[in-house]
Amino acid sequence: MHRPLVSKVMLSPHRKGPSEDAARQPPAQVRHCNYDVQKIDKNTEAALAEHLASDPALALCSADGLALLTAETPSAKTLGDVSTSLVDALLAAQRKSSLPLVPDRATGSRPTRPNMSRVEGKRHRFLLRAAEDFNVRAVRALDGVPYLPEACYFPPYHAAVGDPQPPVLPSPDLDPEEWAAAAHAVAADYRARATRILNHASWRAASAGARAFRKRLSKNRMGTTRALFSSGDPESLTEVNTPDGSTSRDPDTVKSVVSDYFTALQTPDSEVNLSTVPWELDLDPCTTAKPACPPARLGNRITRDLVATTIARSPKRRAPGPDGLLGETLRCAPSAVVDLIARLQTEYWDGGYLPTHLKESVTTLLHKKGVPREPGNYRPIALANTLAKTYTMVVQTVLSDFMEESGMLSVGLFATRPASFAWSLES
Amino acid sequence: MVTGVLEDATLAKRDINLTYVDFSSAFNTVPHSALLEIMRRKGFPEDAIAAVGAIYSESVTSALTPYGRTRPIPILRGTIQGDCLSPLLWNIFMDPLLRWLDTGDRR
Predict the structure, then answer these.
(1) What is the DSSP string of A369-384?
(2) Cα distance from B77 to chain A (closest Cα, Å)?
(3) Taking the model in full, what pTM does it have?
(4) Of A383, B19, B65, B77, whose CA is between 20 and 30 Å from A42?
């Protein structure tokens, strides 16, 4: 049951030598979504909202779209055009705004030198230079160059760095050999002091790191241990097992193997035709649970209020979908845009239609377990476009409200239901 | 909720059997046609069925590999991972089984 963590790390099959690691690095330009939005505060949010509200292109686009939608019953093409141009206008406004986009956190550099204070750094530098100086003087004394009076060639290092104990200088009465030996001794003393300063600084940095680590450990034991023993970068799919049993690193092969895997996963083996399934009528699990008098349509439940609430709830600091529109931008959108979005979503629902650009998503693959060469060992997470996410959130609210009020779901079903359901059972 | 049931069983000194079912790749395997048919039989209004159908018809994704995006992959079955509608649709899909277990003398 209990396995020591260290042995796990040493036995980890994904550990590779440094040269292989360098070869596994993907080319830099293909990184997608490699930016992050810093946590934006109230002021930035207000500034962004003001920027979006004063954007003329966005205002024009939303007014045009509303006029186009109210004039006539819009066709599918009109709906698609309006929503595409809305996304374009929002994106252009987002690009012009001063949202604090920062590069990926993983690329941040780490300090490699121990963090010495300014005074310490100065003392360290001066001591090293003094040691050098004394060594040079010693060699010159041996060569017969007469040493000058102390004040001429010996800069007052100890005064400059505030050294509390000035070194014992060799006396000018000695002969050149003795003087040189004494000067070398002073240089060694200076060098030792410089090393002591450096060691102290590294010790302090290390103990500060240890203190921070202990603090993290006391707060989040599991996470800290994982971070400590995890193998650096997350695994990525830079090479795959091909169907014929070999491994390949060719970009085109990798892409085709991955897409084949997910195509097969998302294609049904055979078409299921439920209308011909001979269910027993009295026990038909679906018909027995029908609501008594269902409303003819639910489309009128998509109100502007609902859409506005959903937009206000749209998450911050999430990776955007393929079009790159951020949730932050949508939250700060002016009310004309919210009007247009509400109008568009009503039309989507009534027409049973969704524009193609909202049905696209990017699936990121997070390594889950096992060999990193198998696409099946990755957890696929679809990054949908922000507008599509808003629409599915609205649909989810409408459907879940309808299902809860008509008592459609079995009381034995607990997964992913609103918390109010559990409370209703208690009473 | 499970804790409450266990407490009741302990207080009543009765035996209780718990079954945990973990469906493997559950969200990936829902056929769209079956989902829409179940919605129809459960009495969802037609416009709701059409709207859900529209979200899933012809939806495509492309996986992101270290070498860039793959070609578009059609989503012909399964709900979209990470979409907030997915758990709800999964509930709709699973509900007939739970009812079937509950009705008749199949307990």
Answers:
(1) SS-TT-GGGEEEEEEE
(2) 5
(3) 0.65
(4) A383
